[in-house]
Structure formats: C-alpha cells, structure tokens
Design goal:
The chain is 31% helix and 24% strand. By secondary structure, it is of the alpha/beta class. The chain has a single domain, classed as Glutaredoxin. The longest helix is centred in the last third of the chain and has 16 residues. InterPro entries: AhpC/TSA, Peroxiredoxin_AhpC-typ, Peroxiredoxin_BCP/PrxQ, Thioredoxin-like_sf, Thioredoxin_domain.
Length: 159
C-alpha cells in the first residue's frame, strides 16, 4: 500500500470547509484569485509552543496582509476553545476547528512520536497551488519567517 502524502510544492492544495472561531464557515476556495493563504496546522490552543507560534504570526500579521496573504491556523480544538485563545492573545487571524481531523488527514500532517498532532505550515498561492511546506515541531520561528519569505516573493512581480 502506498504511503499517504500531503500536497507537495507545485500541487493543488486540498479544498476544505471548516468553522472559524466566530462560527463562520471558511473554505480554501474563498481566497482563490484573491489572496495567498498561509495555512498552519498546530497541535493545541493555549500550550506554550502553540501560543508562541500564534503570537509570532500575530506580530507579523500586518506584514503578511501587506503582502496580500491571509493567515489561517488549524487544530482539532473546538470553536469555543479557538475563540478564547484568539481573544486571550489578540489574534487577528482566523482559527479553524478541524474537529474530526479530516483536513489534517487531507494534508497528511504527521503526528510527532505517533501521538502529538504535528506542526506544518503551507503557503498556498492565489491559484490554490502549494508554494511552500515547512514541518517542524520544535523550530517554531521558522514557520513564520519561512512563510513570510515565500509570501513576499509571491507579492513581488518578477521582472
């Protein structure tokens, strides 16, 4: 049996539809033709690493939006948990509740040590094509800096 693998650079990102922290339904296709999407999967709200990562995305949020990108965080926490997490840390971006882990499976986000949900960041361009994938449970800052470099390169017209 072939090993499942998530979308690779140059491939179309899987479509998804999930509820956000304010109860709105968010689809990847909502951004098609409009914005680059920085889709980051993280293990759990209100844990030290995930809080550091979310706050790092928050602190760079203006730079992402100026470059035409929307940041979206995904974990299996509930809408209510996401709402509290976003309010507590003043997160200006969308957090999606992947309750059954279906989107995590579609993107083949690995578990660390087979138990802890993985931490993977995707940059998806306006056409829905994956342009960057970074997976690291520990190197949290690189998720933000790596994504930002790619987003800025996509925003700059090539000459």
């Amino acid at each position: 049996m072939a090993k499942a693998r998530g979308p690779q650079v140059g491939e179309l990102a899987p479509e998804f539809e999930l509820p956000s922290q304010d109860g709105q339904t968010v689809r990847l296709s909502d951004f098609r033709g409009k914005q680059t999407v920085v889709l980051y999967f993280y293990p759990k709200d209100n844990t030290s690493g995930c809080t550091a990562e979310a706050c790092s995305f928050r602190d760079s949020y203006e730079v992402f939006t100026e470059a035409g990108a929307q940041v979206i965080g995904v974990s299996s926490d509930s809408v209510e948990s996401h709402d509290g997490f976003a309010q507590r840390y003043k997160l200006p971006f969308v957090l999606l509740a992947d309750n059954g882990g279906e989107v995590r499976k579609a993107y083949d986000v690995p578990a660390t040590f087979g138990i802890l949900p993985g931490r993977v960041t995707y940059v998806i361009d306006r056409d829905g094509v994956v342009r960057h994938v970074f997976s690291s449970q520990a190197n949290i800052g690189k998720h933000v800096t790596g994504a930002l470099e790619v987003v800025q390169s996509l925003a700059t017209p090539s000459s």
